Amino acid sequence: MDLKLPFEIATNYSSGSQRIRVMTEYWVNNSVFCPSCGNDLNNFENNKPVADFYCKKCSEEFELKSKQGAMGKKIVDGAYSTMIERLKSENNPNFFFLTYDRSTLEIKNFLTIPKYFFIPDIIEKRKALNVTARRAGWIGCNIDIKNIPELGKIFYVQNGAAKSRNEVLGNWNKTEFVKSTHDIESKGWLLDVLICVERIKKNEFSLDEVYNFESFLKAKHPVNNNVKAKIRQQLQYLRDKNIVEFVGRGQYRLKV
Ligand SMILES: [Zn+2]
Question: How far is the CA of 46 from the centre of ligand 1 (A)?
């Protein structure tokens, strides 16, 4: 995998953002395979409103966002209302995120986030544009990536180092269990408990360690009065899906 943006193909463009768009799309088209099935990806002709790439074999669609410098905690996206609408629809694309070094044009990070990790909770509403702006009143959004479980961030390139093809395909495959949870509220609980388990940062952990996140979860789900029962239920679900295993006496082990 060549980890450099192809400067030579964008020399005819005068706008910096256009050059980056052309180079990053070219790079994805030539270097990135479909994380779901391993096939080559295709560019959408013209300007399709949301997605940029698709896979002919499994029909997955992908939207590409790129940014110079560090990954950061948030990714700036388009209109808030469009994004929320998309989350409810069937044709919400998966997400590609690329970060590069502006002076060397080296690709530092490239990852995909499967569409089923997108819940309204991770979409942050930005302030409406000022009355003096050309698009006064327009409301954009940020994708809050710190509220996405690590499991849902599948890296092809991380801190300048490329991962193997098998690792990418295997990591995508591990997330498939999230796909079968359709109800937004249940999915919210599932992803939140998964984030808590990841934040313990231990391969083997106790139920009490997950209970330590009770107030964090309560703040996210204020109408629920039995957070501990909900935690146990989600751990049970994660066990059924082979993500954790029970090792006895309130102890669990992470399997992924
Ligand atoms: Zn595919």
Answer: 21
